[in-house]
Amino acid sequence: MHYACDLIEWFAIIWTTPVINGSLGGIALLNALKWNRLALMVCIGITVGCSEALPIAGGALEGQVTAIPGAWGPVARDEIIQLETNGPDGPYSVNLWTVEIDGNLHVFAGDNYAAWVEHIESNDAVRLQSEGAVFELRAERIRAPQRFERFAEAWEQKYGRRPMNESVEETYLFHLTAR
Question: Residue 138: helix, strand or coil by DSSP?
Fold first, then answer.
């Protein structure tokens, strides 16, 4: 499903841009605009359908606070987890992909300095939700190239491709541990 979601931006750009080759006369222009509106509506529908796979922000996570398990098992197998950070305006949560390495979960923002990354830099206390359970953790940024390589291998094994940007200096990879 995540491959279909990856195409949303491409479709939105290509199919919603009016076709202009020199000039389009009256009816041709109206038809182009009609098809572009239809394509935009399809893209919006796909976006809503993929909202679980997209990092759409929310507030505080709800669920039973649970002790950290001895092994992450089902949580690590989840395609998507929810991560809550503490922003200046209160709790802030996003849907993210995660991988497990040596019994520890990792979350990744790529080279996107997202709001949740900024929040972690000022307060490393996070909460993770999966299947109704909430785990209280702390996030530590990974800066060692060899650890990033192990992450990239695990990411590829779970999601079928390596991260787009593999520079540990330019990306935001976090290791989640007990508080």
Answer: strand
pLDDT tens for 18-34 read 444 445 555 555 565 56
- Chain centre to alpha carbon of residue 107: 9
Instruction: Please give the span between the terminal C-alpha atoms of the chain, in angstroms, as a whole number.
Output: 34
Alpha-carbon gap, residue 91 to 10, rounded angstroms: 32
Single pTM value for the model: 0.69
Q: Show the tokens assigned to 23.
A: 């000039």
CB-CB contact of 104 with 98 (8 Å): no
* Residues of the chain under the 70 pLDDT cut: 1-57
User: What gap in Å lies between CA 6 and CA 104, rounded to an integer?
Assistant: 27
Give the burial string for 124-143 (b: 16+ CB within 10 Å, else e). bebbbbbeeebbebebeebe
Residue 46, burial from CB neighbour count under 10 angstroms (0-12, 13-18, 19+): middle
The type of residue at 132 is G
Q: Which CATH number fits domain 64-178: 3.20.20.80, 2.30.110.10, 1.10.238.10, 2.60.40.10?
A: 2.30.110.10
